[in-house]
Every structure is written in C-alpha cells, then in structure tokens.
Amino acid sequence: xxxxxxxxxxxxxxxxxxxxxxxxxxxxxxxxxxxxxxxxxxxxxxxxxxxxxxxxxxxxxxxxxxxxxxxxxxxxxxxxxxxxxxxxxxxxxxxxxxxxxxxxxxxxxxxxxxxxxxxxxxxxxxxxxxxxxxxxxxxxxxxxxxxxxxxxxxxxxxxxxxxxxxxxxxxxxxxxxxxxxxxxxxxxxxxxxxxxxxxxxxxxxxxxxxxxxxxxxxxxxxxxxxxxxxxxxxxxxxxxxxxxxxxxxxxxxxxxxxxxxxxxxxxxxxxxxxxxxxxxxxxxxxxxxxxxxxxxxxxxxxxxxxxxxxxxxxxxxxxxxxxxxxxxxxxxxxxxxxxxxxxxxxx
Length: 347
Fold this sequence. Notes:
By secondary structure, the chain is an alpha/beta fold. It is 33% helix and 15% strand. A hairpin with an 8-residue loop joins strand 9 and strand 10 (338-343).
C-alpha cells in the first residue's frame, strides 16, 4: 500500500498579475449591456462588495487577497516537499485550451514524458512571456492508472502529447503558484483533466459571458460529467493508487463559484453561501453532501470548477480521511471563492 497526501489549491489567473489589475474580471462584467442601472454605480452594490472596492478600486483588498493566497500556497508547498512524492496527480479543468471542437473528453489522463509552458504576460514576477518552464511527467504511473480505471468501468481517455495547448492554466498555474518564490519545482505531475465547463466549454469557450452574442439553448454543448460520477472517479483513483507502488499527492486545482458564471448575481460576485455549505461539508467529512450535489446546483451557482474538487472529495471518502487543515477565502470583487486543504496520511 502506498502513502497518499491529498491537497486542494486555487489556480486563480489574476494572482499571476499585479494587484492593480486583480479586479479586471469585475470591471469586464460591469460592461454588460444588460446590467441593471443600480449595479453600474458602486452605491448600488452589496455592503461587503463596496467595502472591498473601497476608494482605490480594490487595490488594497487585492494586496490582502494575494497575501492570504500566497501564504496558503507556501504552506501547501512545504507539506508537499516534506512528503517527497513520486508524482502529483492534478485534477483540473480545460477551458477551451487543449481540447476544442475536434474532441472534448469528459476526463483525460496525460501520460506525457514532460511538460513545457510559459508564464502569463505582464506577470507579477516580471518574467518574459517567452520564458519556458519544464516539469516531468510519469508515463508509467499514468498508464497504470488509466488501465486500472478502464478495468474498473471508468472509460478514461488518455493522451501522449498536447493537442492544441502545451498545458492548460489549471495545471501550469498550479506549478507556477506552488513555486511562487521561484525556488524550483522538481515534482513530476500527471494532469487529469475534467470537463468542468460542460454546456459552455465550446459555446462560451470556457470563459467569460458573451453579452453581445450569447449562445442560444441550441448552441449549448452537452453537459459535464455528473458530480456523482466524478466523486466515484476520485474514489476509484485513490483506491487504485493506494494499491500501487508510488507515493502520491492527489490535488484539486481550481476556484469554486465564479462570478462570471453566476447569472443570479448578475455575473458580479460568486455564490459564497453555496460554497460555504460545501466547504463545511468537506471540512466535517460529510461527503454524501458532495456526492449527492445536483448538477443543476453546480450551474446555478457558477460552481463548474468545483467538479475538480468532486474528485478530491471522493478520494477523501475512499481513504476514510478528513482534512487536517482547510481554509476558505471568500471575496466579493475577485471573481471566485478559493479553498485550500491538506489531508495527510495517518502517522
């Protein structure tokens, strides 16, 4: 039996940028031509939102938000380093990056020898966009996992090389952020993509709403895999890898409710109450709440990316483990709730 460390982090894209532009998604949403007039003025916003925005358009709040995120990432990195894994398996979403119109698998294991990718432009590290990072994969472990999942009834897609993109930001940002202090990152990774964006992965290109020309019902895509299926997939992954020869980190990489996916909040702020409910269930080990969470609720609350964490919740349930540490970081103006979690093996 191998040891498994379970962790959850965020891959929040604006963290790679400067504090002065961290609220750019909100500013884009304020350009919605259908936005009610009251929300176009700061005075019409909820009190918590006005407080974060303050008199500097959220720059001070961005600094505080960054400090909390980076602190949690540093803590997670220390725990991963101390665990000395053979590889990190990362559940993350592909937002019209590697998978496009030609094929959209419900989930896919990357059995790649290595991965090369660059930082975002205008990044907080002042690194040139053409700088290249390289991280090793683990082909043998990826093929082993895929084989065992197929044998267990999970028809899992797999990949030996990139299709349209070298590495989606759910995975690249996980590495860049865990190495926020640029000390180097030597842990091999196995990306495990989840089609979180479902009906909007092609129709909306897994991104911001198209206010001027929104997709019709007929133009929407088939749905994402159900929460129940992904919960069970995560459980099967943990079970298979626990029986293997490797020391493994199982990681979910994503934000939770996204403002730009939450129509009921006018695309301005995330559904924090829905996220907090799931967070409390996760922290307490009430995993049936996760497995039984309706797909319709995921879409209503803009929680598409939480499907990555469905796999993590299933893994925790299979391992009969509760989080040792869990932190929920909420926000009104920085698009998404974030959660960090660690659940080490019993000593």
